[in-house]
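Shift notes (night). Ran Kinesin light chain while the centrifuge was going.
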Amino acid sequence: TTRLGREKKKKRKRKKIPFLMKKKRKKKKQRRGGRQNKRVRKKKKNNKKEKQRIGDENREEESKKQGELFEKRDELVNKGEKSRREGDLEEAKKCFLKAVEMTEQQQEPQRQQQKFANLLSSLGDTCGNLGEDEEAKKYFEKSLKIKEELYGKGHLEVAETLSKLGVAENNLLQEKVAKEHLETALEIQEKAWEETGKEIEEGKGKGKETGDKKRERRRLGNQIAANLLNLGNISVNLGEGLGATKYYKRALEFEEGEGEEGGSEGEGGSGVGETLVVL
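Came back to this:
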């Protein structure tokens, strides 16, 4: 082997050693990096679990607080209803107002929203009984908004609140808008009246379900008669004599004919007959 050949051979050997070392170092670095990445991933996973645990604890605590709040509210509502039955309207109003303040800003599930809508309606009734029609109107409007979102605009719960709102507006001499609300309520109620009548006919039995439907229909009949009477009174105030007569006649027919199912005055009827005698 010539000198030149030996030198070339040595050169090749020298080149191979750094290359292999470099490769080994690279692999070592990758292994080290992999271990580091594994530790980082594990740490992130643990952090995520910890955050989830803390979040669950916070939600549980919040749910517990909310449950306690709802219990207190229900106690206040029951106390308010009791005061209202006993004729202590001021105390009833205080209880209802406190209950409203406690829950007005809460994000409530649907069941609690239903209770809140009923609470607002009860507060509106109490204000109306106290002659505070402006406040009554405000609470009926709030209740109506919630009920429309929960049940839809064609539901009987909505019709009931519309009727109350119409009465409050009529007391505030807002006859036109009151008439609109009462007519909308009447339309919903009359539709439900026909539907329940068909259901009772189809049932043709004396079971518990049929009995419940008949009671529901009697209650609905009283509401329809009362709405017709209120619409008649509003029409008189607006100078619509023919319209008033139409509503009064319909109310009287309802009590005398359909009203046999709808309920008599003694059962909570509207007393349309007496009103017509006076007129």
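Confidence is low (pLDDT under 50) at residues 259-269. The CA atoms of residues 9 and 15 lie 10 Å apart.
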